[in-house]
Amino acid sequence: SESKKYEMLAFSNAKLFKNYLPKRDLQEFIRGKEKLGITTRGILPDTPEDRTYDKHVFSGIKKSLWPRMRFIPREEFPYEAELTIYGENKVSIAKLTQDNVIGIIIEDSVIHGMMKMIFEVAWKQARD
Question: What is the model's pTM?
Answer without folding.
Answer: 0.88
